[in-house]
Amino acid sequence: xxxxxxxxxxxxxxxxxGSEVRYHMPSFLIRQAKGYINKESEKLETxxxxxxxxxxFLTVSGRDIVNANxxxxxxxxxxxxxxxxxxxxxxxxxGDKDVKQWTNLETLQVLEExxxxxxxxELTDTYExxxxxxxxxxxxAAKGCNVIRMPFWYRNFMSYSDxxxxxxxxxxxxxxxxxxxxxxxxGKYGMYVILDMHGCPGGQSTDHCSGSxxxxxxxxxxxxxxxMEKLWIEIAKRYKDNPTVAAYDIMNExxxxxxxxxxxxxNKLYDRMITAIRKVDKRHIIAVEGIxxxxxxxxxxxxxxxxxxxxVHSYGDNPENYCDTIEQYSRYYNIPVYIGEFSDMRILEKCxxxxxxxxxxxxxxxxxxxxxxxxxxxxxxxxxDVNNDPYWLIKLKWGKCLRTQYFSANEEIxxxxx
Length: 418
Prior knowledge:
By secondary structure, the chain is α/β, with parallel strands linked by helices.
């Protein structure tokens, strides 16, 4: 009731006083109030429904990805980053000022300590319900994308890195509910989904993008490896016959290793997860990341892995040389290679020329003066101060003002799509 009264007052002020008062009001309140007056600030495109079916189920054939009819499919899509796992540089969140790379785990810990578990969940639900909606999925399809790479992390499903489910009834588990939703919506509009475990239990690297407070505890903890295995098994069980799921991307950007390929803990963990997944799902493609180089992965003929694609990410590489090298590797070893993340549109152009699968990073986010990262961007965020903002204000900041209609279309990026 209090929230409705606040919005009512804001709307009256906006209608009566115009720009003079708007100048003195916080930007997120202006956008939230305007949302009740004009819901079409940034017109998103719509797409006709074209449901994926069993004939669209994907597998690997040599160096190609093919559907059930044998038609070759090249992934052309985008990452929906910042939705199921927040990243400080692109998400409307502020933590401690003296922490350089604030992580999603710290946000959850602070909110839970301040407001309790249930209210913490209410706040994250509010954020997730507004950052991405069905209109966004339609819009992505209308741009000509045929795939979404969907970053998620273990905390969508588990309360702790020991593998404790948030809800033992997996149909009511919020992580599975979110994946069910995006898979259903993507399939409805004719797009595939690559399920990307962006943050593993304990953290697979010290980088903020794994979510785990700049700690990498996964590789040295059997408990956390079992939790990761447990999660992948349940994901594979749930979606084993779903044609919308294109691939399981086992582990995003794990920490680098300076030893040989055979002793690399990343490859040992990949092998363990592939073995676990194949016990319940023999059909779906599995993506294995070399991150910046394919040379850190075992040669395809040296493994027992089947129906696998190799994945790399490209930031700061020479597009011509990088893509040529990937294409040559794919031909020589007869395996599909996919660029899961990049921000240089010259990579996209070269991928299209060579028919290399790709997903651009990313769909939406904060811009901070750098317009190369997102299709839709804004520098007009008023971020949540997780340590000081009251509950009602966090819920307001993570409300409808976060919808993509209030972001600006980045034409420098969007011109490369339909």
